């Protein structure tokens, strides 16, 4: 228990007068005058103890518990550390969590009369003056309380980016000393001795490179907590603060001087009675300092987060872009670097490690092609981003000269540190089927298809009370199926997805109108990677070729769109954090996932059914994605000409993953064709032959890691009968009667080529390849926009 001095009637002005008189005499009268004042020194200490100060320092918070300290980012398991963030590397701890020897070492070194004076040690000041006068030294004589005041003033000035205040807080003048004395007296009346000692131990600098606070020092130099510091360790740390740059023992050239300074502390502790056992004292003094160290390097930011660095960068951007963490971005950055936050993220360590492995297994970072491969995973029904995979190392300073490093997180939107998005080819097609069913159509209707479509055919008849947000602006769209450069006519929307036929997608858009396709994309979570806008119908900013993937979208957004199908139609906004807490346990609100039923669950189940057929039927485009161990597969490949190859899919209710590869820097100049990738040459690469195997490797490995058996997802993908029947016969287009309907079809037989057998033979008019399909003519966007 700390006993506080009794209040007396002396005022601050009297103490100020006393201090000024004392210092003036010291300066003007020299040592003779100082000696004359010796009898008054002891009285001065007694008088300062009696003061009830009224002095206030505007804008300065001297609360000993309110110090800037580092924030820590951890994975969803709550223990795996991803990164630290700080301006000053500091962990604040209560005095009870600092060992007794550490407290004693600091008092012995800095202020032997700390527990006797009331903030200003007049004996110490006189001793320092005498030493300075006779020996031409520069001793300060400041008490621990004064040093704490100085550190707070400096810290506040640096936080406020105020160089003038920083100068005045550290200038070598009597004015500064007097100011510190007056505030120190005030501090001693407001706080107990142990509280002030706690504040000092947490704010003082204990090493080079902005190493602050005794807990951080203990962990850095010795790998222990402050409460476990022994005698030698305590003396080592206590010695550093006199000159952090030159006494830091982790710097090899400092070690001789650091050991000398440590031994000075041990001598002081022995002389002041803190060490009782002479053998303990001598043993400590003779211990080489290098043998005591166990350096645990600390870093700030995402640069040293290893394979977690891209996710770390994403979370950092989410914090800086979210108003939950402050009114301005500067406020949010201050909170991140000084708020002592514990940021619990959504990162799944298993997912992160396996995503990175699959990416690098598929295309090593040093591959001569220089191709990037990017992967993102989301947990369906939650919006939780589980991890990223890429065949690059994160380097915020990268200028692009080293192909193995990048400063850009290509998996996310531009505002979150990514690019402007990618065209994703046929991997967009499952969402066309969503639009088709939302318009009340059967997936088994037979559609007349063509290789030429006029923009006017995609107008939005009977849309939203007669609105015409898309009015057919543009040129004739020439579109064919991959390899055959032709079409299959007629064909159902179901077969069009299973076989990934472009011409059938075009026919679907012409039947229901492009506005309904745009609505479906928006409903499942689409937005542009550069603008964050959904497809803007009011400005005709979308074109029919979006139905075969000519969009600008990030891999994370695509993974999240697939997650909507995987969660029975529940769409969520991607989130990176589940909880953020301050040091005192107070929680800060984090951005919400806003999960909601975006599309009818029967539609989601029917789309999943069709995706599974595409992975299992002999004429399916996704056979390379088929999972092992008998697990049911839900995946869709995609190819954007020869620039980007993609695959997206999911394990129901567990994980949705999207893969994209290509040359991000020069997709047109460096095509994915007639090239060896990771030692394998192909004249024709597509989503099935490069992206699907990466997707499959990861999904199989992740399922195995989580212990999911072959029955995982087997009860998913149950097609709804109302979307499987057909009453309209053949729906025709291209100059003939176009039948459009907003009602649900029913009570009819299914179309040709739409049976559910996985061994169905190919139609004679279609391509027999299992490779994915893409447009070969008229693609209105072929570059990534990166």
From TrEMBL:
Record-linked Pfam families: Transgly, Transpeptidase
UniProt-listed Gene3D superfamilies: Biosynthetic peptidoglycan transglycosylase-like (1.10.3810.10), DD-peptidase/beta-lactamase superfamily (3.40.710.10)
GO cellular component: outer membrane-bounded periplasmic space
Segments of skewed composition (Low complexity): 741-776
Ion transport in keyword set: no
Assigned keywords, A-Z: Carboxypeptidase, Cell shape, Cell wall biogenesis/degradation, Glycosyltransferase, Hydrolase, Multifunctional enzyme, Peptidoglycan synthesis, Protease, Transferase
SUPFAM superfamilies from the UniProt entry: beta-lactamase/transpeptidase-like, Lysozyme-like
Top-rank taxon, per record: Bacteria
Residue ranges of domain Glycosyl transferase family in the record: 81-269
A Gene Ontology BP annotation from the UniProt entry: regulation of cell shape
Region called Disordered, residue ranges: 731-786
Family assignment from sequence similarity: In the N-terminal section; belongs to the glycosyltransferase 51 family.
Name of this chain's protein: Carboxypeptidase
Annotated organism of origin: Bifidobacterium hapali
Lineage: Bacteria, Bacillati, Actinomycetota, Actinomycetes, Bifidobacteriales
């Amino acid at each position: 228990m700390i006993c506080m001095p009794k209040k007396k009637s002396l005022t601050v002005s009297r103490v100020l007068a006393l201090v000024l008189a004392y210092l003036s005499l010291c300066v003007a009268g020299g040592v003779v005058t100082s000696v004359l004042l010796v009898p008054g020194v002891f009285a001065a200490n007694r008088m300062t103890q009696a003061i009830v100060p009224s002095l206030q320092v505007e804008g300065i918070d001297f609360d000993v518990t309110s110090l800037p300290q580092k924030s820590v980012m951890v994975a969803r398991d709550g223990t795996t550390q991803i990164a630290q963030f700080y301006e000053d590397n500091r962990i604040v701890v209560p005095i009870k969590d600092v060992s007794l020897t550490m407290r004693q070492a600091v008092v012995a070194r800095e202020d032997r009369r700390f527990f006797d004076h009331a903030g200003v040690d007049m004996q110490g000041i006189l001793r320092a003056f005498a030493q300075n006068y006779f020996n031409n030294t520069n001793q300060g004589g400041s008490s621990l309380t004064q040093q704490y005041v100085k550190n707070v003033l400096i810290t506040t000035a640096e936080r406020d980016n105020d160089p003038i205040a920083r100068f005045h807080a550290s200038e070598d003048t009597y004015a500064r000393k007097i100011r510190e004395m007056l505030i120190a007296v005030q501090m001693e009346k407001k706080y107990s001795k142990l509280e002030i000692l706690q504040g000092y131990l947490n704010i003082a600098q204990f090493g080079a490179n902005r190493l602050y606070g005794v807990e951080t020092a203990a962990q850095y130099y010795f790998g222990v907590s402050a409460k476990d510091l022994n005698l030698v360790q305590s003396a080592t740390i206590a010695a550093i603060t006199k000159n952090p740059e030159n006494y830091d023992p982790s710097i090899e050239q400092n070690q001789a001087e650091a050991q000398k300074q440590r031994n000075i502390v041990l001598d002081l502790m022995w002389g002041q009675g803190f060490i009782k056992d002479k053998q303990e004292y001598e043993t400590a003094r003779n211990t080489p300092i290098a043998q005591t160290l166990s350096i645990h390097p600390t870093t700030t930011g995402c640069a040293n987060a290893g394979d977690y660095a891209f996710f770390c960068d994403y979370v950092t951007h989410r914090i800086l872009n979210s108003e939950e963490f402050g009114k301005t971005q500067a406020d949010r950055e201050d909170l991140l670097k000084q708020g002592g936050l514990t940021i619990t993220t959504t990162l799944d360590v298993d997912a992160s490690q396996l995503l990175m492995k699959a990416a690098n297994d598929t295309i090593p970072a040093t591959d001569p092609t220089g191709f990037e491969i990017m992967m993102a995973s989301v947990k369906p029904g939650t919006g939780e981003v589980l991890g990223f995979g890429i065949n690059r190392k994160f380097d915020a300073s990268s200028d692009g000269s080293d192909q193995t490093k990048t400063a850009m997180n290509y998996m996310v939107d531009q505002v979150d540190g990514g690019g402007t998005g990618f065209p994703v080819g046929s991997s967009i097609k499952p969402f066309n089927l969503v639009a088709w069913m939302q318009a009340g159509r059967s997936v088994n209707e037979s559609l007349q298809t063509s290789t030429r479509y006029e923009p006017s055919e995609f107008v939005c008849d009977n849309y939203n009370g007669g609105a015409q947000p898309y009015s057919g602006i543009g040129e004739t769209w020439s579109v064919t199926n991959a390899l055959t450069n032709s079409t299959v006519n007629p064909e159902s929307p179901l077969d069009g997805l299973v076989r990934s036929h472009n011409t059938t997608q075009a026919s679907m858009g012409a039947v229901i109108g492009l506005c309904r396709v745009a609505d479906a994309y928006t409903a499942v979570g689409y937005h542009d990677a550069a603008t964050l806008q959904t497809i803007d119908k009011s400005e005709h900013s979308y074109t029919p070729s979006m139905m075969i993937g000519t969009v600008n979208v990030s891999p994370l957004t695509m993974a999240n769109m697939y997650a909507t199908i995987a969660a029975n139609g529940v769409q969520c906004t991607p989130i990176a954090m589940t909880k953020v807490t301050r040091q005192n346990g107070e929680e800060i609100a984090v951005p919400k996932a806003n999960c909601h039923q975006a599309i009818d669950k029967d539609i989601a189940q029917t789309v999943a059914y069709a995706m599974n057929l595409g992975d299992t039927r002999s004429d399916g485009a996704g056979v390379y994605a088929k999972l092992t161990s008998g697990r049911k597969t839900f995946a869709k490949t995609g190819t954007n000409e020869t620039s980007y190859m993609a695959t997206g899919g999911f394990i129901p209710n567990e994980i949705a993953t999207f893969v994209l590869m290509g040359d991000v820097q020069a997709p047109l100049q460096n095509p994915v064709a007639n090239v060896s990738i990771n030692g394998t040459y192909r004249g024709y690469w597509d989503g099935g032959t490069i992206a699907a195997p990466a997707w499959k490797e990861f999904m199989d490995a992740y399922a195995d890691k989580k212990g999911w058996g072959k029955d995982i997802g087997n009860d998913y993908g149950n097609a709804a009968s109302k979307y499987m029947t057909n009453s309209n016969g053949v729906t025709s287009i291209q100059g003939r009667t176009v039948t459009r309907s907003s009602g649900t079809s029913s009570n009819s037989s299914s179309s040709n080529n739409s049976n559910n057998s996985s061994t169905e033979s190919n139609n004679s008019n279609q391509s027999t390849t299992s490779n994915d399909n893409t447009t070969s003519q008229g693609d209105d966007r072929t570059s990534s926009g990166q």
